[in-house]
Amino acid sequence: MKNILLFLFSIVFTTSLLAQNTSNGTVRSIKVMGNAEMEIIPDEIYVSVTLREFTREKKKYTIEELEAAFVNFVEKETGISRKEIKMESMDASFVAMRRRDKDAVLQNSYEIKYSKASQVNTLFAAMDSLNINRAYVIRYSHSKMEEFKKQIKINAIKAGKEKATYMLEAIGSKCGNPLTINETTGYVMLENQLNRVPGVYQSNSSYKESSFDKGEETIGGKTIKLRYEVECTFEIL
Q1: What is the model's pTM?
Q2: For residue 208, what pLDDT band results from cuts at 50, 70 and 90?
Q3: CA 70: distance to chain centroid?
């Protein structure tokens, strides 16, 4: 699959033999820990943008003017519909002040979902011309993330059963039906950072395109690693 770089079964187990009492007598069992890992290429970049009113050369640039220019640019230059631009926050205190004081300064924050690094580069390069106060990448993700999480959990269970099977074969026994399956740990990690990517750009700051130009195919060269661990108990036959 194009979006998957690497698919790994990483099996690290703690094994124990158990004896459980049931109404039908004692059931011998084995408990194992199974791990599975997967690396995927993200196809979603979430960017936060903050617009803040200001005055320059006796002209005040209102939030309405800034927002209109920003939305038009995003639509025309990056190909993202204005419907995909979500408002993150609007400070209620500023809104209240505006009603009492026409000189009050208002600011809004927005979230945009992109699919290509070039789109993010285009936005960041135009920060000064759009009078964007602040912009940064919130997180990377994938449109099929839940499907990948489901698959990696299934693979962890299969790995647990495989471990139990060959451990029991070594002593002349067989692996029977599962008695318990518990998910213990799991994480989604982007290059050793848990769903967090540094890189905040302020208006009038030095913008460096190299932050995102290391490979369009991999969205800036980023990959996401998923890892899950399950605890499985199987009957010994």
Answers
A1: 0.69
A2: very low
A3: 25
